[in-house]
Specification:
The chain is an alpha/beta fold and 178 residues long. It contains 5 helices and 6 strands, in the order E-H-E-E-H-E-H-H-E-H-E.
Length: 178
């Protein structure tokens, strides 16, 4: 067992044991991981066999809903060789690397930004052979709560109609500033 003193406080890099019946690997469980495109090949080769999905981190969204390029060809190739399904990872990161609530607000509330975003996602899904999108919107304004739910429903409908998955990354809120 994991013998966690406080299970609500997991640390980065902590390894967790997920027990299965008779200790056999649970092939019914889906496992996703994020990876930077420049990940060490030895690390990638060690962990790819354990994964169902991989998210090359990350295409940044701008205020108009456009996605930045990502040099993830080698990562996508290695995933395909190992039978791991890639997901298009997209996040509301600004050029300095911080999460932007203004970018999230634009995607959640402006029809033009939404259309640009969905069109860019569908294009990249086809070009890269990804199976779906992992949407990582963080530091969303509290007043955008309902817009977030409505956008997820719209985005899921558009992706599902084309046979793609949608997953969301939910960052825990640790303070009122988030």
């Amino acid at each position: 067992t994991n013998q966690l003193n406080d299970p609500s406080k997991l640390a980065v890099g902590m390894a967790l044991l997920i027990p299965t019946a008779a200790g056999a690997p649970d092939k019914s469980m889906s496992v996703n991981a994020y990876a930077y495109p420049n990940i060490a090949q030895s690390v990638l080769e060690e962990y790819l066999p354990c994964l169902s999905y991989i998210c090359p981190f990350t295409h940044m969204i701008d205020i108009q809903g456009r996605l930045s390029p990502l040099n993830d060809a080698i990562l996508l190739e290695k995933a395909a060789q190992n039978g791991v399904s890639p997901l298009l990872s997209v996040a509301n990161l600004d050029p300095e690397g911080g999460f932007s609530p203004d970018i999230a607000h634009a995607i959640l509330t402006q029809e033009i930004a939404q259309n640009n975003f969905i069109r860019d996602c569908l294009r990249l899904l086809e070009e890269k052979g990804c199976k779906g999108v992992n949407l990582d919107l963080e530091y969303v304004y509290p007043f955008d709560r309902e817009s977030y739910s409505q956008f997820l429903a719209l985005f899921a409908q558009r992706l599902h109609a084309q046979g793609y998955y949608l997953s969301t990354a939910l960052a825990p809120k640790t303070g009122d500033g988030q």
